[in-house]
Structures are given as structure tokens and as C-alpha cells.
Amino acid sequence: MSSSIKSKISERIQAIPRSGIREFFELVLNAGDVISLGVGEPDFSTPWHIREAAIYSLEKGQTSYTSNLGLLELRKSITKYVARKFHVAYDPVKEVIVTVGVSEALDLAFRALLNPGDEVIYHEPCYVSYSPTIYMAYGVPVVVETSADDDFALRAAAVEKAITPKTKVIMLNFPTNPTGAVMDPRELQGIADLALKHDLTVITDEIYSELLYDERTHPSIAALPGMKERTILMHGFSKAFAMTGFRLGYACAPSELTEAMMKIHQYSMLCAGITAQVAAIEALEHGAAPMEEMRKAYWRRRNLVVSKLNGAGLKTFQPGGAFYAFPDIRSTGMTSREFATRLLEEEKVAVVPGTAFGKAGEGFVRACYATDEKQLAIALDRIADFAQRHRKG
Amino acid sequence: MDALLDLLTKDSRLSVEDLAARLNLTPAAVQAKIAAWEADGTILGYQAVVDPEKTANGGVTALIEVRLTPERGGGFDRLAERVAKFDQVSTCWLMSGGYDLAVVVQAGSLQEVARFVAEKLSTLGGVLSTVTHFQLKIYKQNGFLSAPVPDGSRLPITP
Questions:
Q1: A24/B159 Cβ within 8 A
Q2: Could you list the pLDDT tens digit for every one of the 159 residues in chain B?
Q3: In a shared domain, residues B26 and B88
Q4: What's phi and psi for A54, nearest 5 deg?
Q5: B152·A45 Cβ contact <8 A
Q6: b/e string for A264-291 if b means 16 or more Cβ within 10 A?
Q7: Chain B residues within 8 A of A32 when measuring between CB atoms
Q8: Is residue B97 located within the same domain as residue B60?
Q9: What is the CB neighbour count within 10 angstroms for residue B112?
Q10: Short-list A275, A269, A282, CA closest to A62
Q11: What pLDDT is stored for residue A68 in this prediction?
Q12: Which pLDDT score is estimated for A113?
């Protein structure tokens, strides 16, 4: 007597709910010709000089494994970049690990740190991976909900309320996907104080840190006194350098933590792709000007999106970073899901329901402005028409 | 470069309201800045960038390297300004290196270009020599590719 193959799947994995984004993805695929504001990646191709470096490395025959931690030349470029941008000094030999995207770095960090039952404080709405990755590492995700009244800022006081004797890690991500929220340096210091007081480790996902607007600079928690020794700083190339498909990221951490992550990485991945690593060196060494052009373009689009959405009666705060707007759609009387589904049906524009990013996203949708300006303008006009038609009172 | 000026070099057909929305400025402020730049010559004009292969009678374009004798108390200016005044001259730059003036000439035919060079340009007092190159194909001009490569398509929804 045999049971279904489905019953062979591990109970832990069966317990993970289907991603809210995935369902919506399938809806959009079936909807035909749609202007999608539902992406999480730049509309730009990787700048040509970076692609050319990758092509050249293939022509030269660079196709073998690299050191587990990544090409030393890349690690040196990374520590130079991190020192300049984040004001933290890491040793390229012992304190950097190159990973297959920040996604892998996240997984390594949680698996390296968490004992079963350890709690990880993180904020919602947030990137879809954090909670499931914590769970898969046998940790317990503990949510701090951020709110629109506060432009979705994360406050030290809210983090403090969530601390219990089982708290091991505080997880940070700002600028934030999906809200575009940024971190107030005073709150950051408050969070650092909590980490020091309760002997907690901090994991910080800084993937959008170059995409800041209105003369903001990015404060990294690892640069604060006493924090480098207890922080895993993660960053990558996908957003600022438009290298999503290259799948390349890195983590900088004290050597003991880097070594622990390396233990997992050496068996599960061996190393990140060499072509991507070579491209990444080119990006770090020579990519500043094209990156700035992209950032300026995102800034212009952000201004356009915020002004049009507010003009349409969908209250939208001005995000300080990343490339997402998170409008409040409650003036239509619909739920996030209803709004997104009906907008898709009636106007052929795709946005992502805020609930895909946590319960705190109910009443909101995520609109990505990493989209061609002309298409963006058309989509915004259609959203305005839709909001007008469905306005309640 | 100023963000508004930069945006105008990319698309000068955006309306004042569209420009203002993209730059977090008021339409009045945008209007005032543009008027000031037009008045002081920072903005010299607005042009559509056209691919001549797609038009009938695209004409002929030539790049001419001109060597000049500089003049006391003026250098190359007087001569260069005189060359620039010709309608056929669309571009005129003073250059470092093996020649002095890079002159781009547009005319109806090869013969017209040749006639211009022989009769109008080479005959100017102070012109030492010219070398004429004819343009064969435009790949990119003023930042616009003639055949834009379509960007790889993205999945419609990603986290």
C-alpha cells in the first residue's frame, strides 16, 4: 500500500503557505497585454560596460570554480566599496562572503545563527522571503508592524516591545521593499542600543541603499559603535547596478560569522558564478556614473508617481528610497486583493496587493516605478481613471 | 547639470506640468528657469533628432577637417565664426590634435558638398588645408541609437 507522493514532502515545507505573489503572478500571465507595475527589478538592462566585462571573461575562458568565499579581487573591491559607502572597514580575506544573490546570504545568515525556537524580530510590510527563510531555519519570526501614519518607519520603541528572552536577531531592511520607507538615524541608534543591551545580533539587508533620494545618505547600523562585531551586513548588485539575473550578493560580518556561513555555502553552493563575480568587480570599480544616471531616472519617476497617485485620491507618502510607491487604496472601499484584481481586469495594469508583504499591507498596493517612463505615465492615467470610477465618498 | 536642464536634453517635448511633476518643482518655477536659460543662451534651441535614412532625400553629410592659420589678437575665432555662419555648416568645433576645425556639412548631394568645400571653404584666407570625409551610416546621434535594442523582457510580477 503506497501513499501519495505529496505526503512524502516534509511537514515543515508543507506548512509554508503558497506565496501571495505567486498567485497574482499567474493571474497576470493570463491577462494578456498588461502594463505591469508589479515587478521588483530595474527596467534597465545591466550597463553595457558590465555586460562587456562578463562577455570578455567568457572569451578569455574564465569558467572554473572560484574560492568558496568568492574571488579575492572581488572581495577587495567589496570592502573598498563598503568602507567608502557605509564607513565600515572589513577584512577582505576573512570577513566577506560572496553569495548567489542577497537571497542566499539571508538564508546562510539565518541557518548559521538560529537554534530551534530562537526569535527573529523583523518588520512588516516587508520582502516576501524574510519570514519563510527564518521559519525554514527553525527560527520563530516575530513581526513588528509599521504603519502608514508613520510613513512605515521602524521605531526603536516598537522593536523593544517585541523583545523577549528568546530573541536572538533583529532583522532590518531599509530602504524597504515594498514601502520605500527609510530609517531615521536616531531610531537606528536606538535599535543599536537595544542590540547591545540585550546582546542581540543584527542582520541588515541594504540592497536598496544606493537608491536614496532628496540628498539622503544611508546610515548603516554596522558603522555605529560596538555594532560591527554583532552585525551581518548584506548587500548586492541587483537593484543599483541592474544585475538581478546575475544572482550575486555578499555578506560582510565578523570572521566567526563569515566562517559559519561559509560552512553552509561550501556544501550547498560551492561558490557563486565566476562570470557574475567578474561582472561585479567591473560594477564596483567603474559603475558609479551609470548607476547615478539610473538613480536620477528613478527619482524623476518617483516624483511623477507620487504626484499622480495623490492626484487620483490614493494617498501616497513620498518614499525616501528604493523604487516602490505604496498607495493607500481604501478610498475605493476595496481590499488590496480586490483592488489589484479589478485594476488588472478593468484597466490592464498590474500592481501587487500589499497583503503579499504581510498583514500590515492590507489596504495598500505596491506600484513599482522601475518602469519605462512612457508606460508608467499611461499606467498612472489608467489607475487615476479606475480610482475615480470606484471612489466611495 | 541642473536636473531640469538634463531632462530637457532627453525630451524637450514634455509639458511644463509634466516636467514639474517629475522634478518636484512648481510649473511656474519650471517656466521661469526655462525662460532664463533661453534668454541667456544656455538653451540655444530645441530639435527633433531625425534618422535621415527614414526620410526621402535624406541628403549627404560630410565631416571636414580644416587646418587654419591662427591670427594675431584673435587666434582661430574670427575664421571659425565665419565658417560657422554658412547654412550648410551644421556643426563647427575647434579641436586639439592634428587639425583645427571639425566642420560638419549637410547638403543635397555629394557634388554640393564638394562644391562648398572647393568654392567657399578652401578659398577662405587663412584656411591652410581641408580633408573631407563622407558619412556612410549613422549608428547613434545625440544620444539616440538608430536601431534601439529592445531590452530583454521581464517577468510581469516578481517579489
A1: no
A2: 899 999 999 999 999 999 999 999 999 999 999 999 999 999 999 999 999 888 888 789 999 999 999 888 778 998 999 999 999 999 999 999 999 999 999 999 999 999 999 999 999 889 999 999 999 999 999 989 898 877 667 888 888
A3: no
A4: -65, -45
A5: yes
A6: bbeeebebbbbbbbbbbbbbbeebeebb
A7: none
A8: yes
A9: 16
A10: A275
A11: 96
A12: 98
pLDDT digits (tens, 9 = 90+) for A38-48: 999 999 999 99
In angstroms, the Cα distances linking A80 to A75, A90, A92, A280 are 9, 9, 9, 13
Cell, residue A229: 562585531
Whether B104 maps to a domain, the answer reads yes
What gap in Å lies between CA A230 and CA A6, rounded to an integer?
A: 41
Place of cell 492615467: A381
What grid cell was written down for B11? 525630451
Looking at the predicted structure, is the pLDDT value of residue A58 above 90? yes
Q: Tell which of B17, B19, B149, B157 to mutate to test the A interface (max A CBs under 10 Å).
A: B157
Q: Are residues A151 and A202 in the same domain?
A: yes
- Cα–Cα dist A49/B105, whole Å: 33
Identify which of B6, B23, B154 has the shortest CB distance to residue A41. B154
Residue A52 sits in a domain whose CATH number is: 3.40.640.10
Phi and psi at residue A153, to the nearest 5° = -75, 150
Phi, psi of A48 (to 5 degrees): -55, -40
ipTM of the shown complex: 0.78
CA dist A124 and A132 (Å) reads: 13
Residue B14: domain span? 3-40
Q: B95 exposed, middle or buried (CB, 10 Å; 0-12, 13-18, 19+)?
A: exposed
What is the grid cell recorded at A153? 518607519
A80 and A12, same structural domain?
no
| Residue A374: Cβ within 10 Å count | 9
A165 cis-preceded (ω within 30 degrees of 0): no
Could you tell me if A282 and A49 are in contact, meaning their C-beta atoms sit under 8 angstroms apart? yes
Q: Are A84 and A256 in contact (CB under 8 A)?
A: no
pTM exceeds cut of 0.95: no
Q: Which residues of B touch A44 (CB under 8 A)?
A: 151
Residues A165, A232 within the same domain? yes
Helix axes A274-286, A48-59, angle to 10 degrees: 140
Give the minimum alpha-carbon distance from A102 to chain B in angstroms, rounded to a whole number: 13
Nearest CA in chain B to A19: B159
pLDDT 10s digits, A153-207: 999 999 999 999 999 999 999 999 999 999 999 999 999 999 999 999 999 999 9
3-state SS class at A254: coil
